[in-house]
Amino acid sequence: MTRLAPLLHHNERFARDHTPVPLGLPTARLVLVTCLDHRIDPAALLGLRPGDAPVIRNAGGRVTESVINDVSYLAFLAESLLGATGPLFEVAILHHTQCGTGFLADPEFLRRAAQATGVSEAALGASEVAEPKRTVREDVERLLASPLAPPAVSVSGHVLDIETGRVTTVTDAGHPRRAATTGAHRR
Predict the structure, then answer these.
(1) 20 to 30 A from 126, CA-CA: which of 14, 62, 143, 180?
(2) How confident is the model at residue 24 (pLDDT cuts 50, 70, 90)?
């Protein structure tokens, strides 16, 4: 038996009252990038409902090549299939205090983690969030500087304080620093 089995009764209740949301632009015009930490529930934290915002989660909520690819694809999808023009959406990057990836700032812990998991120290170290205000700024810059960053997408950075539950803005929404040209963000 799977550990999900006892939770499936919640899904039965959900399915009884479920109204599907049609494919379209997120109603909040937002894509959230955040940590996979089980203490973070983006819907509860920000009052999101189905259809409001896609949520991309990974260890630390870091902007990785995969996240950049996802954002680029979402912009392409909005432009191509949905006929969206002008500003498409904002990518809100949300890091948090007390992140488990913060342990990776300790070189000995990082070495042991790499040995135990088979993941390189460089890859593990890239997910470290020991100082969330610093790392969220770095990630906003990383996404804005990417040649794949869609010109019609803005990027902002925020930090959740796990103790208080409050989110503060560290970096206001900005746009990629290059001329917006059709297809410029594609390979």
Answers:
(1) 180
(2) confident
CA atoms of 71 and 56, how far apart (whole Å)? 9
pTM for the full predicted model: 0.90
Report in angstroms the alpha-carbon separations of 28 from 55, 75, 78, 91.
12, 15, 14, 11
Angle at 19 between CA 13 and CA 21, to 5 degrees: 130
Question: What's the confidence (pLDDT) of residue 177?
Answer: 63
Q: Around Cβ 11, how many Cβ atoms within 10 Å?
A: 11
Q: Which two tokens stand for residue 112?
A: 């042991």
Q: Tell me the average pLDDT of the chain.
A: 92
Which residues, including other chains, have CB under 8 Å from residue 64's CB and lie 6 or more apart?
A: 58, 126, 127
At 35-66, the pLDDT tens digits run: 999 999 999 999 999 999 999 999 999 999 99
HSE, side-chain direction, 13 A CA sphere, residue 147: 3
- Nearest-angstrom CA–CA distance, 104 and 12: 40
Q: Is the distance from CB of 94 to CB of 67 less than 8 angstroms?
A: no
- Portion of the chain with pLDDT greater than 70, in percent: 94
* Residues, the chain: 187
